[in-house]
Amino acid sequence: MKDWIKSGSPWIWMTGGAVALAVLSVFFVLWMTAAKGLTHFWPKAVLETTFRDGDQQVRVIGELREAEEVSVRRLQEAGFKIDTSEPFVDRVLIKLGNRDLTGQDFRWFPRPLLGEFSYPRDILTVERHEWGNFYGHLKAVKEGDQVVAEGPQAWGELQARVQRAQRLFREILRIEKNDIGDVNYRMEQLRLRERKAQLQGRLDEALKAELAQQRAALDAEFARLQERLQTLREDIGRDALVAEVADGRAVEVKLALVADVYQANAMSTADKIVHYVRKFWEFLTDDPREANTEGGIFPAIFGTVTMVLVMSVIVTPFGIMAAVYMREYARQGPLIRIIRVSVNNLAGVPSIVYGVFGLGFFVYVLGGNIDRLFYPEALPAPTFGTPGLMWASLTLAILTLPVVIVATEEGLARVPRSVREGSLALGATKAETLIRTVLPMASPAMMTGLILAVARAAGEVAPLMLVGVVKLAPSLPIDGYPPFIHLERKFMHLGFHIYDVGFQSPNVEAARPLVYATALLLVILIMVLNLAAIKLRNHLREKYRGLESV
């Protein structure tokens, strides 16, 4: 027994079991997140049934989302009249849609009070830009006040007119975001130019006339775009569909509000696969809508990647320089030991504390002074004196700086002393030895520090809520306007998007699948960034493997 324990066999088994348990836990989390998130894009069948509400039979149309077992007493206390000797029965959650008509999007129904489920092929699922999904039996398609198709011919006519409406919607969106946005940007630049000239005492009559001429040209261009927009809005508001909802009413839905329409019950498996791929692509590339509970998350993906890249550019050189100084140049004594202890302790400081520091120092002190020195014409509106991408990246750089310093120091410590002495013996200076020999050999450890920093920074939310992240950003931090990278702008972030949709959404049930889908995407994004860094680290490790054996 003593020999078995001395051999280390139990510790090997315990270590292997712990590793296996950790791997299984990671796979379970990923599987659960993927199962609940990726199924959101599959077209759901729409059922039709009846509900016994007291002495009345009410028709119900919607998507079956969940089912669970509850006690009969609990349902009876809630006012449901259920006659059964069973202590427990099932209840189902049905997405009713039509929130603008009924005031509710989801509702739980006791299964014993529901009739048989049927799945009529003519039921429409209409995804709208406002008010969520709409469900109903398609009855007719209208152009203005005239019915242009009804009955079996209505579906084909509706598809063609929905495509037309979507083309017009994209044209309207392009004019509003790009063309009118460009005019507004140039108008603002004229205003800032005029204000700057006024502050500098250069606003003479010639400059005023030049600015007035340019402003008049922009006003004319803006009026032309507004006229074009009015024409497009009239065109897109021409068509409508008429559908019969659950209570028997014939409801008219303008195609200008329709983001997508399909008959899920009539779709084949191939149609559903095509629909799934299209919806998933829209999720990755579109802007959010309906308080972030629908649409895509592209601005959040873009903001997360941009912030991580800017943070990496900031934290890597500062972390490496600090580690090099403490390991290679500083006199090893009590002061350096205190600094090392402080660096290690900084890694355990709650992230929200860094957010408060970033808000107080970076935003109010640095940003406010930058505005007064370089952007006086924009005051009192702040430019850098407000939370933005730059301050968020700097805050996370300070948060992850201890990780990079510690990892780099460990890498420098593993470089054999004989390598340094051999380089110096060949006539190289200490700086040349450090730059050409020591740092390349320690580069895998530096990459390890960067990997850990990226993994932590990409998932942080608390400090970002104070220093730059917003629920919905009007524009991306990178665009076609000089200086092209706008570090002063607020941005969206996947982590904050998960928090906002999951806990601040007015429609929690509708937002829940998007929470899982966004969480899975955040994990995948972190994995991609880390794998890229790991590949570079492995390349560097192989490149300098020969030197390590010297």
TrEMBL record:
Q: Which gene encodes it?
A: pstA1
Question: Could you say which protein family the record assigns here?
Answer: Belongs to the binding-protein-dependent transport system permease family. CysTW subfamily.
This protein's membrane topology, according to the annotation, is: Multi-pass membrane protein
NCBIfam families for the chain: 3a0107s02c
- Major localization listed first in the record, in broad terms: membrane
Enumerate the GO terms in the molecular function aspect: phosphate transmembrane transporter activity
Gene Ontology CC: plasma membrane
Q: Which keywords accompany this UniProt record?
A: Cell membrane, Coiled coil, Membrane, Transmembrane, Transmembrane helix, Transport
**Annotated Pfam families:** BPD_transp_1
**Source species:** Tepidimonas sediminis
UniProt key word Transmembrane: yes
**From the record, what ranges are coiled-coil?**
189-235
Which residue intervals define the domain ABC transmembrane type-1 in the entry? 301-533
**Segments traversing the membrane:** 12-34, 297-325, 346-368, 388-408, 438-458, 514-534
Say yes or no: keyword Cell wall biogenesis/degradation present: no
Q: State its location(s).
A: Cell inner membrane; Cell membrane
- Can you supply a Gene Ontology BP term from the record? phosphate ion transmembrane transport
| Name of the molecule in the record | Phosphate transport system permease protein PstA
